[in-house]
Design a protein that fits this description.
By secondary structure, this protein is an alpha/beta fold. The chain has six helices and four strands, in the order ααααβαβββα. A four-stranded parallel beta sheet has the order 3-2-1-4, with helices on both faces. α4 packs across α5. The protein is globular and about 65 Å long. The N and C termini lie far apart (about 75 Å).
Length: about 180
Amino acid sequence: MDDHADEDEDEPVTLSAAAAEALKEFYQEEDSRQKQFEDLKAQVDDEVKQQDLTIEAFAEDWNASQFWYDDETATTLAKQLLKDATSDSRVAVVSAPSVFVKVKQILALRDKSSRPQVSLFEFDKRFEVFSEFVPYDFQHPVRLPPEMKGAFDRTICDPPFLSTDCQTKGEKFRAHGKMDE
């Protein structure tokens, strides 16, 4: 047995100065993001402040294949989704929280009586801060609350993975969530 191997295991691991600084900056950014998120929780129920919502408070999670649309794309998609929508419209936003945030911004500028009903179907529990949040898992694409099956006349769906399986499951949601024509 090598006596030096045991000695190496007892020595504490140290970071270089540059690595320690990078780690410090990372934690500062995380703390700042957490503060933004706490501020967001306070503002989601305030109609006036909804106009100022941004997706920036929610960090993308690359491990969950979670990437946000840029502002211009999210705005374009939200506007298209809401085009000619009325208070009788039901809108499903599936795994596209950056679009959902834009929808909230746009609707905050509309009279309450003309707003469609919007639901956010999302796996990420951070979005529970929104009353429109519905827990959703692509592994179970048709597991919807009974009152929501066949209830939507508009849907945007951005499956988290580009695999055929995930895309097919996204289509299953659309088929089960869509109103009969």
